[in-house]
Amino acid sequence: PLRTFWLYTMPSSPAPIKVVYAFSICVILLSCTNQWHVFAFHRAPCTETSIRRQFQFSDCYAPNLNPNIPLNQASFVMSHDSATGYLSKNQGKNMNDEEYQREMQKLGYNQNGNNNGRWNRITTALLSLYGKTQVGSVYDQLNNGARALDLRPKIYNNGTVGFHHGSLIDIPLTSITLRGLLEDAKQWCKDNPKELVLIFHSELVHEAGYNGLSSQLYIEVDDDDDFGDGDNDDGVAEEYHANADDGDDDTVIIDDAFYAYEYKDDQQEQEQQNYEYIYSGIATLKNVYDEKGVPYYSCEKLGGLNVSQAMELADLSKYGGKGYLLAVDRHDIYASFCGKANWAQDQLVTCYSSASNYNNDEHDGPDQNNANIPSYVQCTDRKNSGVAKLNDLKTYVTASANNDPSDSPYELGPPEDESYYPFNQIQGLWQVDATSVQIGLLHASTLLDDNRISKVNEEMVKMAYEGQFNTINIFAIDNVALNGNAMFSVLRNQCGQSVLKDNSDEPTCGRDLIMPKMETNRTLPIFWNIVLVVVYGSLVIMVTVMLFQAFRLRNKGPQDHRLVCHGHII
Prior knowledge:
By secondary structure, this protein is an alpha/beta fold. Helix content is 34%, strand content 14%. The protein has 18 helices and 22 strands. It has helices spanning 2-9, 15-35, 49-52, 97-106, 117-131, 138-143, 178-191, 211-214, 267-271, 280-292, 307-314, 355-358, 385-402, 434-442, 447-454, 456-465, 484-492, 526-555, and strands at residues 41-42, 61-62, 76-79, 148-151, 153-155, 161-165, 169-171, 196-201, 205-206, 216-221, 251-252, 261-262, 274-279, 296-298, 324-329, 339-340, 352-354, 376-378, 423-427, 474-477, 564-565, 568-569. The protein has an 8-stranded parallel β-sheet. A 4-stranded mixed β-sheet has the order 7-6-5-9. Strands 1-2 form a two-stranded antiparallel ribbon. Strand 11 (251-252) and strand 12 (261-262) form a beta hairpin. Helix 16 (456-465) packs parallel to helix 17 (484-492).
């Protein structure tokens, strides 16, 4: 109607009326835009062609997440082992031993005079080849499509919280600590205040081993308070050293090694207060989150919530910040993951494996009687054994989403008890074991190279776009810098995931939208390769001919090349 009214009435109207009418249309469109939440996420910067092509809408645009869908049905891209992104390629080479020691002392870490900085840095440099799963800081990873962060905290004896990647590697404290990582995450949330970011803990360890985590604190909590609530600053007990003795008989020592909680033995006061035991490691993590103003909850807080309710918990404006950031774990001794991880050890798919383990009825493995066939299979061989490897990984990830629900950690599939497992993880990545690391190092490869050459991220995006998963909740990938935005765009634009409604002829969701054009290894088409060969070949021939002529003339000795024309020397 607006367009029809403009065509038939405006051409004959005075200029001021046209201006007023145009302004009115702009106001109407802006109000409708705000109502439909069209102002959503715009990735910045959006200048590189390889980035823009990963989004299914123009200008690196993605609509807002639907606030009404259950949280366990909302789709998030998770960067696997996010803290490893802080490991630089030159890790261990940019500081000498004395500088390393000084940096550690600034962090309050005392190595008791042992000058082992050199060996620590050398070990880190080697193990990071297959321990580094991401590129760039947490800010970079979120900008590359991640909306969930996978953190493996490590608590040091001095109370500093760093990170590790299983038995492979400890992220050096000189690279990143939890405090520094949270600053990067908060800054991204401030720059993108409408996006919900989740932080998942798992595999919490202590420098002192099990004894450093097994102690408990007896803390005071409110009646309706969960220990993860950032508002409860009084719930953290003070550290108590075993050798300290202030002579107060009212002090109760919960653990004889480290901690205690002091309270008065007043029956009337006790009746008005609630106390509960929590692990010391969780208390250490909470101290950091309270200091940085980031909410930190236990898994049970998130059971049954929708996206809007989760964003209410994650609202950083309550802590003086901006955006939505929420850290969660099970609040047990190891700060376990809140969902079903779908990590079935006997079904894991690695990039490299022995051919003897791969030659069975399910695969067309190499013939061991043929000496010319290598004794291993690899995901980077995209024309031969890599095809079978990739098919195995596809089977693994689809089973994680499409199998019958089960709470067994040894079976793939979504959880049956959604209150205990508020999330379900799909691990769309190559797993790592001792054999795969050894073979990978023999190939002078790294985990990031395996990810890039095998194009596993690209394949996962295609599977998600084609709807091969019944539901996608947490999709974990390595190297989110490579096509992570494509995965984010596909997941966000699934039908029902965003606030866009299909109320017109324009495509708004799912396979009605175009497939993202993902970043590749930037190889040229064969035509341009031929052109380059012809051009450079011609140049080489020309230079060769010129050099040949120069040497031929030189070998003939000095000659008089002067010309005589009409009696004059030229």
